[in-house]
Write a structure and sequence with these properties.
By secondary structure, the chain is an alpha/beta fold. It is built from 9 helices and 11 strands. The protein has a 6-stranded mixed sheet with strand order 7-8-9-3-10-11, sandwiched between helices. A 5-stranded antiparallel sheet has the order 2-1-4-5-6. Strand 10 and strand 11 form a beta hairpin. The radius of gyration is 18 Å and the shape is globular.
Length: about 260
Amino acid sequence: MGTDNNMEEVLLEIKNLRKSFDGKEVLRDISLSVKRGEVISIIGPSGSGKSTVLRCATMLEKIDGGSLIYAGNTAATDESGNVVYADKKTRRKIRKYFGLVFQNFNLFPHYSVLRNIAEPVVITKTADWTTAKERAKELLKRLGLEDKADAYPENLSGGQKQRVSIARALATKPEVLFFDEPTSALDPELTSEVLKVIKDLAKNHMTMVIVTHEMKFAREVSDRVLFMENGIIHSQGTPEELFNSPDGRLKAFIGKLES
């Protein structure tokens, strides 16, 4: 579990979030607070809006309604039905608060592993190139990839690629780390090595929001689990509350995964 009772600072607040694509409402009134050190897993069927929540929270998608606040800094707010985003300077500052690990790695194929990790640090002006390289080397060692610094993504296994993606996200020292189905592109053996990395981060009180289809993992690592369906948060609670006595819809969803 990630939460320390002494850490009550809210790092992310999403209020009444709405998002539509081509006239179809994908997210309907999503509200969510994430406290420092908290690990939240988001589960639910395909098309329920899980990944869209992450893409809106990381400003990869513009929201149609609601507000988005990082540690008291407003990224977007709804003013009389129109969403207004913060200015560029503020958005740059806010982007340093979070990191995102994609489902399909999103590594630059023409960059070495070391450069894939160090480059975002320099681009975001988090540190200079020398410091970025040292930070990348430290993260590779921490994730058991110190011998892969000069390798290229095409020479890595899927599990190694995802660990490099995690190192890249950690390199800018984010306050919140988002994971979008981090194991869906991996076979079971490689899945376990990536989940171990995330569990280790949870033990070290890394604040994380994880979209996952791994129910056992969600039970073990989460402080809270959110079950999404049809663009809303249908139910939420501790893993014990949700999984030990699921309501009918959650029970049906879990049953499909286990069948």
